[in-house]
Amino acid sequence: MPKFAANLSFLFKEYPFLERFAEAKAAGFKAVEVLFPYDEPASEIAWRMQDLDLEMVLINVPPPNYTGGERGFAAVPGLEERFRRDFKRALRYAEFLKAGHMHIMAGKAKGVVALETYKRNLAWAAQEAPNMSLTIEPINPHDMPGYFLDDFDLAIEVLDAVAELNLGLQFDAYHAQIITGDAIAAWERYAPYVRHIQIAGAPERHEPVKGLIDYPAFFKAVDESGYSGWISAEYMPKTRTEDGLEWFRQAQSA
């Protein structure tokens, strides 16, 4: 049975951020991820996770000015120094929280120069943080127009070119469905590169029930592949988070 984590940037938003950890634990989750936790002291988050015996699965890079700002800049030519500075800052935060993965966001860019910039920045980051698992994630162009990494084959090209052991693929089944039209087939193709999974229903990004993705079949395929990492619930609840967790209870009892 897959291990499920709660994305606290999406779930339990009925509560103030620091209260969401306890709500996730009460709902039965043993791990969480937070896309951009940087507005809170790392010590406060770490204390709550330790008190609740929760694991931090993943945080995103870069840390600053996300609201209304650029969604990363690892592939943006001319911003290499900013990337390195903010990566180091995020790495300190991730290490303090004992985060399992750091997702490096590519930002908006296109073209050959952007591709080479992306590869160089990822190679530098992998060597700068040899003991940290780093991920890149294809994001569909409908949700994030202009984002550099909008294709799985491009992601594999980058991973093969960089060829660092601590850099892998973050597989979001929702984005995979929108990009490829078949999330399960995409999983079967790209699973060897995957070190973290996220889920949401498609096409509306609500609870992972019904819709375009057969999640019981997806979870079965993940199990059969031998994947042993976390699957993070990263969706927009239709109503209150607790009211939409039947999928989680059913998956746990399957």
Query: Can you tell me the residue ranges where pLDDT is under 50 for at least 5 consecutive residues?
Result: none
Count of helical segments?
9
In the sheet with the most strands, the strands line up as 3-2-1-9-8-7-6-5-4
Order of helices and strands: EHEHEEHEHEHEHHEHEH
- Major sheet: size, sense and barrel closure? 9 strands, parallel
Number of strands: 9
Ends distance = 7 Å
The helix-and-strand class reads: alpha/beta
Overall spatial form: globular
- Our Rg estimate from Cα atoms comes to 17 Å
Give helix % range: 25-40%
- Strand proportion, as a percent range, falls in 5-15%
The whole-number mean of residue pLDDT values reads 95
Structural account:
By secondary structure, the chain is α/β, with parallel strands linked by helices. Helices cover 39% and strands 15% of the residues. It has helices spanning 20-27, 42-52, 80-97, 112-128, 152-162, 173-180, 183-190, 215-225, 246-253; strands at residues 3-7, 31-33, 55-56, 58-61, 101-104, 133-136, 167-172, 194-199, 230-233. Strands 3-2-1-9-8-7-6-5-4 form a 9-stranded parallel β-sheet. Helix 3 packs parallel to helix 4 (112-128) and helix 7 runs parallel beside helix 8 (215-225). The longest helix is centred in the middle third of the chain and has 18 residues, at 80-97. It is globular, with a radius of gyration of 17 Å.
